[in-house]
Structures are given as structure tokens and as C-alpha cells.
Amino acid sequence: MNSRERVLTAFAHHQPDRVPAWCGSSAEFWAKAKRELNLADDEALRVRFGDDFRRVVARYAGPPIQLAPGATSRTPFGVERHGMGYGQPISHPLQGATLAQVNEYAWPDPNGMDVSHLRAEALAWGGLYAILGGDWSPFWHDAIDLMGMEDLYLKMYDVPEVVDALMRHMVDYYAEVSRRIFDAAAGAIDIFFIGNDLGSQTGPLLSPALFERFILPHLKRLIDLGHGYGLKVMMHCCGGFAPLIPALIQARLDGLHAVQPSCAGMDLRRLKREFGHKILFNGAIDSHHVLIKGTPDLVRQETRKVLDIMKPGGGYVAGASHDSILEETPVENVLAMFDTIRACGKY
User: Fold this and answer.
1) How far is CA 58 from CA 20, 114, 184, 290, in A?
2) How many C-beta neighbours within 10 Å does residue 251 have?
3) What's the N-to-C CA distance of the chain in angstroms?
4) In terms of Cα–Cα distance, which of 288, 327, 281, 334 is closest to 306?
């Protein structure tokens, strides 16, 4: 099997030739790994790790962005952030907003995203890899950025129509950008990959009732959009979100990434037993306690344990339990993980 066939077989909950492998990385780790392994380019590193996925992304082509002093990035909805990586919001422009103020906010124009290059980029892989596409669409994070977490939660109880409008405007934008991506690259993309962190170390960030009332309908909009183009839909979600999985399955989500076994409720045996025949799990090899702090021998041991639990029957992609392998992770540990996936993931 090639990588694309391997991944799609796993999504169909059948057993491919071996467990597919996933590599998500921070830019800092990626640069370090290329340097330590003396590899010239990104593709050489992907091949060395055995990554079965490739990704295409739209490019911003809107008006030039002028960041305020101290800001390091800006979200599509105008929230400026500061700090490492994506940083933290400097302000919450819709904190305390009324329904009218939400509706009148300067929501972004999907025309600002250039999708013209995507089809050629996706086809350049020659059908060998599973291609990820679509807008990341982190509308739950954006809602927190725009209103602040406390204000957002209070509005769910006090003025739910304001939260409904906020979610609708954001997902209108994300859905339209992804629709343009899929129209431009129809038939060349396999998986619509989105991201919303709904869990903390100790459990979900909101109750199943609030999740189903405010978040799930908009996730379902995106899921249905992807399915309408014949795509699998996979969502990145950090933390202990196990109580939300039944609703995600009911909404017909196809895959969940990155499955953090160190979080509350994320016992791998239970997840596989209760949900493994209904939704694909991607990740589950502990980034924190094993990949960062462990030795190569421990990584090999723990990777084999995870494979023994998760690989039977298909429906599993192996990789780290965090979307981005961090710079402090030893390269030899990451190599040990991927080499063990390749050696011990065979069916």
C-alpha cells in the first residue's frame, strides 16, 4: 500500500498493511531535526520519519497587516496576540459586546485567502500521500479570544443569542474559506483537518450540555461541508474531552487527533473499546512524559504498548499526543517512536 491507501483504509476501520504514521511539529523542532540529521529539506525529514500525510494550505492575500507594538501575530478576526508560538491575546475586542455590536463587528472577507495554488500543490504528491486541506477553523479558540473566557461562559447563560451570533459569524467565514479551497482542489484533497481544543488536563472545558448547545451545531456545519465534497473530516482536540466523544460521533466526525492519554478520562483501552469502531484515533503516544522526558528505550517500550492497544481492527494512526512536537523533545526519541511504529505496526 502507499501512504494514501494506508490512511484511507484506517479511516474505513479496516486493517492496512501497517499502522499509518503522523508527524506534527513545531517549527523549532523541525529545524533542529533537519540540522541534527543533516537533512537538506522538509520532504527529506518527512520521509525519514515515515509521515503518511501531506498538507496544503491557503495563503493570505488580503490587505497588508500592520501589527501594533508588542504584537507578534493577528487572528483572522483582528485579535492581536503576543508570546511564544501563537501567543496569548492582548485584548478581547468583543468583551461585553451586545448582539448589535457582534453583528456590526468587522468580520473578515473570505476573498482575502488565495486558493489558486492548492490543486497543483496537492496533485504534485502524485496520489502517494493522504492530503490534508481546508481551513483550520478554530472558532472555539477565536470565541475565547474575542470575548474572554469568563464573559463567553456568562453569556451562554445570560444572553445565549449573543454567543449564537458570534459562532455563526466566525463559522460563516471559515466555512466559506474551506468551500473555496475544496472547489479549487476538488478531488485532490482527502481529509478536511480542523482544530478546536475542547479539553483541559482534568476534563472538558465545558459541559456536554453547553457543548451540544453552542459548539456542536457549528462543528456539524463544517463536518457536513467536508462530507459534501467526499472528504473525511478529522479534528485536532487537546485535553480530556472523552465525555464529548459520543456527540462528536453522532455528528459524524471521522477522526480525532491527538488523544492525550495523560489527561482525565483518556484511558486508551476504554477509548478503543467504546469508540474505536466508530471513530479513528490519531496520536496517543505521550508527548510530555515519554517523548520529552524519556529515553529512546522507554519511547520504544511505550510506543509498542500503545500499538498493542490501538491498532487492532484499524481505525488508528500512530503519532505523538500533541499536535506539535516541541523543540525540547530529543530527536533520538522521535526517531525511536517512528522507527517502532514502522517495525511494530505491521498487521
Assistant:
1) 25, 6, 10, 34
2) 18
3) 12
4) 281
Q: Does residue 236 register a pLDDT over 90?
A: yes
Measured CA to CA, the distance from residue 247 to residue 249 in angstroms comes to 5
- pTM of the predicted structure, to 2 decimals: 0.97
Q: What is the CATH number of domain 3-71+114-137+185-344?
A: 3.20.20.210
Task: Kindly indicate the confidence band of residue 84, based on its pLDDT and cuts at 50, 70 and 90.
Answer: confident
Query: What is the C-alpha separation between 280 and 257, in angstroms, rounded?
Result: 9
Give the ranges where 113-244 is alpha helix by DSSP (H): 118-123, 139-147, 149-158, 160-184, 208-210, 216-228
232 and 192 Cβ atoms separated by less than 8 Å: yes
Three-state DSSP at 271 gives helix
Strands 59-60 and 88-89: unpaired
CA distances in angstroms from 210 to 196, 221, 249, listed in the order given = 15, 17, 17
Contact, 17 vs 1, CB < 8 A? Answer: yes
**C-alpha–C-alpha distance, residues 295 and 284, integer Å:** 18
The contacts of residue 279 (CB under 8 Å, 6+ apart) are: 245, 248, 249, 253, 254, 255, 256, 315
Q: Which three cell numbers stand for residue 33?
A: 531535526
**In this structure, are strands 53-55 and 130-133 parallel, antiparallel, or unpaired?**
parallel
Closest Cα to residue 132, out of 8, 220, 49? 8
Neighbouring CB atoms inside 10 A of 60's CB total 12
**Cβ atoms of 208 and 244 closer than 8 Å:** yes
Q: What mean pLDDT is predicted for residues 89-95?
A: 97
Band of pLDDT at residue 284, cut at 50, 70 and 90: very high
Break the chain down into helix, strand, coil percent, rounded to 5.
45, 15, 40
The residue count for the chain: 347
Q: Is 284 left (phi over 0), alpha (psi -120 to 50) or beta?
A: left
